Amino acid sequence: MTAWQRLQRLPRAELRAEQDHLLRRYVREYLYPFSPYYRALFDHSGVRPEQIRTVDDLRRLPLTKKQDLLPTDADPQRFKQFILQPDAASLKASWPLAKKLPLLWQKWTQGTEAVKRRLRDEFAPCFMTFTTGRSAEPVPFFYSAHDIHNLHDTGARLVDVMALDPEYRIANVFPYAPHLAFWQVFFAGQAAGMMALSTGGGKVMGSSGDLRAITRLRADALIGVPGYVYHLLRRAVADGLDLSSIRCVVLGAERVPSGMKDKIVQLLEATGAHDVRVFGTYGFTEARMAFAECPTKGNEYTGYHLYPDLAIFEVVNPQTGEVLPDGESGELVFTPLRARASTVFRYRTGDLVRGGLQYEPCPHCGRTVPRISSDLTRESSLKDLQLLKVKGTLVNLEDCAMLLGSMPEVEEWQIELRKKDDDPLEVDEMIVHLAVRPECGEDAAAERVQELFKSRLEISPNQIEFLGLEPMLRKIGMETEMKEKRFVDARPKV
Ligand SMILES: [Zn+2]
């Protein structure tokens, strides 16, 4: 039985006790002795590693912010501070005898080289992905062979949570990139022994190439970014293709708007695919793992099922950083329990979760692992564009994205920010560009957008402009950009 099989139905108290144990060990034997950044942080905060005994003790330590990872003038390679870097002396001083004995034994029986190789496998970076901020400098995150093994493991867990059949043939249309989403799918396929075709997405093969590959493969599972998967299926319907082999769609790298699953199911119906499961997933570069929803007949948003033996999540007040009681909305904070190479600790994800973590067993699959509500705002994806202030109201651009992505009449959209009359000193203006379904009237759609923006977001776009589907696809760079251009800041730089 794997650790995951044993763990996923344990009572909450047992899961917590296991986390306490893993956390103690991780802090004493890995984080404090080998992480230059965290060793300094512990010392500076006056916290001894022995004082971190339970999950509740985490709050003794300050949170780590995204900015802490960014290069500074004094330290242009700041990311290195976060890599675990053991040496002979620190290993000797920090590891208990029970951990050192097997190494000594190996040294006697197989020689020093064998021990070196073993430590290299555990600690030496051999793979990397990047964070994907729009304007901020990308931050590299390294993996050792040990971490790649974890990526296999979480891949197998994703397949298990979504109840995918290992016989499934997978079409992975995430863009070829040093980003977690693509590689998590790649390693999940390897771990589960699934036949996976990674096309590289629209920028590499184009939607027609992708569709040809999917139909030839007779893929059972389609995996990619929501906007691109939707685009692909729309094209399949327009071309009258048969996608009846598809049984499930897995969406990742972005939040899934509430109406998006229904829109995808409808398109698939039109291509002959029935009773399809659509899943949302959640992951981020710094976690080096992803989490998924479990299947339900109605494709409900069942929450992301966590792995308590691999990571601890806390929910904190985004203003004060204080840990919030169960059930309260706040920002997710991530602490890994088995990470090597690049390691963050008590890391502020910038993602806001409504209703906090859910600890009651999942009503759908019965697993007892905590779940993150699917109602997640990825504030981090907006940080670079900032919240827009319109007539004194702060507007969360991602809420706009969720609203437009959910509207059945909207095919594609883009939000543009301008200054009135292009004058830097004038007020901001918001223009919503829309391509609507042919059967929907433009006036009715414009009215509906105005009404929804006003009632849900308390703002009114200054203008709504319409465009045909093809020019709109070009405008957002659907098959030419790595990421669709949904927000354009055309305000003159002051
Ligand atoms: Zn479940």
Describe the 3D structure.
The structure is a single chain. The chain is α/β, with parallel strands linked by helices. The chain has a domain at 388-489: GMP Synthetase, Chain A, domain 3. Helices cover 36% and strands 20% of the residues. The protein is built from 15 helices and 21 strands. Strands 4-3-5-6-7-8 form a 6-stranded mixed sheet, with helices on both faces. Strands 10-11-12-15 form a 4-stranded antiparallel sheet, with no helix packed on it. Helix 2 packs across helix 3, helix 2 packs antiparallel against helix 5 and helix 13 packs across helix 14 (442-457). The longest helix is centred in the N-terminal third of the chain and has 23 residues, at 12-34. The protein is globular. Mean pLDDT is 91; it is low at 380-384.
Topology, element by element:
Blueprint: H1 3-7, H2 12-34, H3 36-45, H4 66-69, H5 88-94, H6 97-110, H7 112-123, E1 127-130, E2 140-143, H8 145-161, E3 169-172, H9 180-192, E4 195-198, H10 202-217, E5 221-224, H11 226-238, E6 248-251, H12 260-270, E7 277-284, E8 289-292, E9 304-305, E10 311-316, E11 330-336, E12 347-353, E13 357-358, E14 371-372, E15 376-378, E16 388-390, E17 393-395, H13 397-406, E18 410-419, E19 428-436, H14 442-457, E20 463-466, H15 469-476, E21 487-489
Parallel strand pairs: 3-4, 3-5, 5-6, 6-7, 18-21, 19-20
Antiparallel strand pairs: 1-2, 7-8, 9-14, 10-11, 11-12, 12-15, 13-14, 16-17, 18-19
Helix pairs in contact: 2-3, 2-5, 6-7, 8-9, 10-11, 11-12, 13-14
Zinc ion is lined by residues 294, 302, 305, 362, 364-365, 367.
